Structures are given as C-alpha cells and as structure tokens.
Amino acid sequence: MIEEIFMTQQTALIVGASRGLGLALAEEWLGRGWHVVATMRGDAPGLDDLHARFSDRLEIEHVDIRDASSVRDLGARLQGRRLDVLFVNAGIARSNDKTPVDAAEQDFVDMMLTNALSPVRTVEMLASLVRENGVIAIMTSELGSIADSTGFWPLYSSSKAALNMLMKGYAAHHPGDPRALLLVAPGWVRTEMGGDEATLSIEESIPHVVDMVEANRGKPGLRYLDRFNRELPW
Ligand SMILES: NC(=O)c1ccc[n+]([C@@H]2O[C@H](COP(=O)([O-])OP(=O)(O)OC[C@H]3O[C@@H](n4cnc5c(N)ncnc54)[C@H](OP(=O)(O)O)[C@@H]3O)[C@@H](O)[C@H]2O)c1
C-alpha cells in the first residue's frame, strides 16, 4: 500500500521557495497531495512553518541559482529521482523605476544573472530529472513581453525578456524534447517584490498557475503563458 502511494505520488521541485510566490507554489502542491522539494538560500521561516505541517511530503534543499556548483550539487543529491514538475521561481527586482542613465550598473548585472542566465542554466542542469511527460517551468513576467511593454520597470523587464530569449535558445537546442517548457507570467501579485499596490493577492494567482502547469503536462514545446493558460505575445 505504501509502495503504491509512493509510485503514484507526484513530485515538484520548486527552486526559490523561501517566501512569496515560490513558497505559495510549494504550499499549493502540498495541498494537492504532491511530494515537494523546495529550495531556500538563507532563513526561510515560512518554509519551516510549512515543513511543520507537511513534514512527510516536504523536503527542504539549499541552492543559490547564481552559484552553478550549488545547482550541480543539488542535481547530484536528487540523482535517481523523477520529477513531474521542475519550477524555477527565483528572481529579483532592483532599480525598478530607474532607466539606463540613472540605474546602478550592478543592479542590471545582478538582474541579468539572477533572472535570465541562472534560471536557464538551472534548467539545463536539472532537466534530466524531469519525466518525459513532465513540465519544466520558469517564472517570467508579463513585463518580459517586448510587444506589450509600456516601459514600466525597464531594467527588470529587460532581464525577463532576456530570460524568454534564452529559453527560446534552450528549446531550439533540444528539438524533440517531449516535455512542456513554460515561461509563466503570474500577474502582478502582492509579495515583497510585487509590493502593496499590486492588483492580485497570492491566492488570486498561484492556484491558477498550478492549474495551468498541470494542464500542460504531456504537451511538448515552449510556450509563454499567463496564469489562465493564455499565450502572451513575445
Ligand atoms: N510578485 C509579482 O508581481 C511578480 C510578477 C511577475 C513575475 N514575478 C516573478 O516571480 C518570482 C517570485 O517573485 P516574488 O514576487 O515571490 O518575489 P520575492 O517575494 O522577492 O521572492 C523571491 C524569491 O526568489 C528567491 N531568490 C532570489 N535570488 C535567488 C537566488 N540567487 N537563488 C535562489 N533563490 C533566489 C528568494 O530567496 P531569498 O529569500 O533567499 O532571497 C525568494 O524565495 C520572481 O521570478 C519574480 O520575478 C513576480
């Protein structure tokens, strides 16, 4: 019986789950009966609370996606595991209202490395753990759409556009990959990053995101989607 549960239980790895949307993704999939591997870097009281509620199905791991060796080590620790979902959620926002003339250069460099290069590198390093009918998802943003841009948060938006482009490259370099490759735009959500002015609560975003990811299982190809599974213009 226990073996049967283990065989049928689905597993999600959420990279960057200490707080905000990543923590909510972990909680949502735990609530749906999944096994979750959730990663953090430093302190994560929210994840500790979740572990107290779901100790049998929540594993906590440590990874900093900027540090390639820490991602490689995580992959080694998870060797032999089969993931139904790999979701790279980690991201940062800096110099939000600045433009190239007044932004701190390092903020732009940090966003390009954390939001664009590192998530796709993480996917490259961990993709082999994901089942053939599974989903590889990265949290991008509506702001990553060049076509729809209003100029809001231009540096952050550029890093998400770069993320989208790098995933285009990943998809092109892995033709025939049977897994769904999703660039997920969650809406503007009230978190530390989204701020108090954001239009959506976490509850108005994340359950839809999880429904959308599950709906894409077994559907190969790269798609840029909002939380309602609608295609966004690149
Ligand atoms: N909130 C929104 O309105 C919104 C809209 C569109 C897209 N997004 C995207 O959604 C994702 C989550 O955003 P959020 O609103 O939940 O932001 P948040 O509350 O600031 O949380 C960001 C998460 O990313 C993690 N992280 C940052 N850098 C990392 C690194 N180098 N390695 C591993 N983890 C790292 C943080 O971990 P620590 O606790 O260790 O810092 C934290 O768990 C981001 O990719 C963001 O760009 C957010």
TrEMBL record:
SUPFAM superfamilies: NAD(P)-binding Rossmann-fold domains (SSF51735)
One function term, GO molecular function aspect: oxidoreductase activity, acting on the CH-OH group of donors, NAD or NADP as acceptor
Protein name per the record: 3-oxoacyl-ACP reductase
Organism expressing this protein natively: Sphingobium ummariense RL-3
